[in-house]
Amino acid sequence: MNGDYLELTDVGVSFDGFVAVDGVSMTVLQGDLRFLIGPNGAGKTTLVDAITGLVPATGSATFGATELLGKKVHKIARLGIGRTFQTASVFEELSVLQNLDIAAGAGRGPLTMLRRRTSVPEEVEQVLEVIGLEDLRDRQAGVLAHGQKQWLEIGMLIVQNARVLLLDEPVAGMSAHEREETGLLLRRIGAERTVVVVEHDMDFMRSFATSVTVLHAGKVLSEGTVAQVQADPRVQEVYLGRAAEGVA
Amino acid sequence: MTMELDKADETGTAVARTPPKRKLNKEWATAFGFIALAVALLVLAPAVLSDFRLSLLGRFVCYAIVAVGIGLAWGRGGMLTLGQGVFFGLGAYAMAMHLKLADAGADGVPDFMKLYGSGQVPGWWEPFRSPVFTVIAIVAVPALVAFGLGAAVFRRRVRGAYFAILSQALAAAFAILLIGQQASIGGTNGLNGFRSFFGFNLYDPVNKRMLFYIAASVLLVMVLVVWQLYRSRYGELLVAVRDQEERVRFLGYDPANVKIVAYVVAAAMAGIAGALFVPIVGIISPASVGVVPSIAFLIGVAIGGRSTLFGPVVGAIAVAWAQTSLSEAFPSFWTYFQGAMFVLVVAFLPKGFASVGAFRKRKEAKA
Ligand SMILES: Nc1ncnc2c1ncn2[C@@H]1O[C@H](COP(=O)(O)OP(=O)(O)O)[C@@H](O)[C@H]1O
Ligand SMILES: [Mg+2]
């Protein structure tokens, strides 16, 4: 739709002197399916936290022409930045439909809020189909399978109208089949959005990434296509080698 | 309900796509419960209870109004409001001040002020001569205090036990403040000896019965208000904030605002309850607004089922009733009984007695 992109310039986060994210710069274009990989503790989650306002950060993170750093969490969300968490966090006591309806409603006025939901909003109906949960719409979110919860979360980002999707390990704990489904889902929705996927799973990355950024000790170690990154000796040394040994 | 849903899945998608049936059943059950409550309060109770007992029930109904608000703020909103006595007290004292002034006549001075005070009505009492001002103040003062408090506290992300302790400390401070004001607000004795209520003689049994009807009707209206809130999108959002406050933030909402609304509504309800309590019971004193009554408000809600519509009402009335009958028979025993009951419910039935049915259903569904 528009050509807005996510641009990080020299983003840094430190916790009491410990530098978790150290001068990270990167640009993610619309339609790109960017994978952010790196060993445990590399700072991937912290970087997502910084962009979404959860932890204070230095440097700059812009989407379109708007600076994100320094804004409150809910304001950043309203600017079109959406995220998921390492552990699925849906509203367990509410139904799939209610979860999506809430995600779609941050802009609603008080009068709409005080009335009942009488029909399913158009965008919610569409997303139910996209994430394949049409038939489970009235199911309590808490009883969904793990994979379904993650899809619901992705659906919530879509109805929330997120232009940037930051997904923190969306396929962790999923079966091979669920991973495949998730990858295809990301491809479908990624065409007109900016998607960053934090991931450990190398096979998943090889199948679906259009570009990769490798983070190590808070710094960008390498960036490029899957092939380029895999061929990078530094990456092999710190990450892929260890991943093969099962450390990551 | 869970059972029905599972069955629906086995037969394919058709039933799952038409949930309104399930919802309608639930709506009907709630409507039926509401009618039963209305009949019990407005028809049955006045028919079978003596004037004395009916007046007693009127007092419990006031507690139940507070309980409805606590159900909203705590049951649905997750705010453990241990200080509702403050809002109850604000409403009650506003009403009591008006009644004292009205009894004293135009430009008159309430009796206790002649006794303990300078014999002059303090300036801040004067507006309460107006019935209209008083009625507005009964709702607005607790609501405004709750708004200010909520804005300060929820925006700073104070919650859980910290919020509970803070609200309780407030109730303690409020009671101490009142006790210190012997001359202007009756101190420990509080305000009492009201003779009339907006022109109606309070010694007339017919008027006392009327007060019961007013309180019962207000309770029913409050239940309707909360019912609408629970069914609304706001109600769904409030549950979401209760369960995953941070997650809601990332959807673009400010959870503080969501919580403030529930907290303010609960405070207004407590204020209205306090105002009705005054003519029904005939006295308001710091003992009715401090820490102990604030906790007592909560116990009925916990026992009845805090996140249900009727649980808080039934729980509040049942606990107050049990307290009155048991403490008449065994005065020192009640406190222990109340404590034990609270512990048992919190430990074994965290959602109150109302959850017994739901729990059974869940077990069946899982099996
Ligand atoms: N709130 C925090 N306080 C202190 N240290 C933290 C905090 N959050 C993360 N860290 C540290 O920052 C580093 C990066 O963590 P994280 O971003 O979670 O890594 P990743 O997601 O790449 O596995 C880790 O060493 C972690 O211990
Ligand atoms: Mg992480």
Structural class of chain B: mainly alpha
Reported CATH architecture of chain A: 3-Layer(aba) Sandwich
The end-to-end distance of chain B, rounded to whole angstroms, is 15 Å
Q: How would the global form of chain A be characterised?
A: globular
Number of helices of chain B: 17
**Helix-strand string of chain A:** EEEHEEHEHHHHEHEHEEHH
- Regarding quaternary structure, what we see is heterodimer
Q: What number of structural domains do the residues of chain B give?
A: 1
| Residues in helix, % of chain A | 25-40%
Report Rg of chain B. Answer: 22 Å
Overall strand count of chain B: 4
Strand order of the largest sheet of chain A: 6-7-8-3-9-10
Bound molecules: adenosine-5'-diphosphate, magnesium ion
Profile the largest sheet of chain B. Answer: 2 strands, antiparallel
Describe the structure.
The complex is a heterodimer of chains A (248) and B (367). Chain A is α/β, with parallel strands linked by helices and 248 residues long. Chain A has a single domain (6-245), classed as Rossmann fold, CATH 3.40.50. Chain A contains ten helices and ten strands. Chain A has helices at residues 44-51, 73-78, 96-103, 110-114, 122-130, 146-159, 176-190, 202-208, 226-231, 233-244; strands at residues 6-15, 18-28, 33-37, 58-63, 66-67, 81-83, 164-168, 194-198, 211-216, 219-224. Chain A has a six-stranded mixed sheet, with helices on both faces. In chain A, strands 2-1-4-5 form a four-stranded antiparallel sheet, with helices on one face. Chain A is globular and about 55 Å long. The model of chain A is unreliable at 244-248 (pLDDT under 50). Chain B is mainly alpha-helical. Chain B has one domain (3-296). Chain B is built from 17 helices and four strands. In chain B, strands 1-4 form a two-stranded antiparallel ribbon. In chain B, helix 4 runs antiparallel to helix 13 and helix 10 (205-231) runs antiparallel to helix 13. The longest helix of chain B has 29 residues, at 20-48. Chain B is globular and about 60 Å long. In chain B, 44% of the residues are buried. Classes of the chains: A alpha/beta (248), B mainly alpha (367). Chains A and B meet through helix 2, helix 3 and helix 4 of A and helix 2, helix 10, helix 11 and helix 12 of B. The structure holds adenosine-5'-diphosphate and magnesium ion. The site of magnesium ion has 3 residues of chain A, from helix 1.
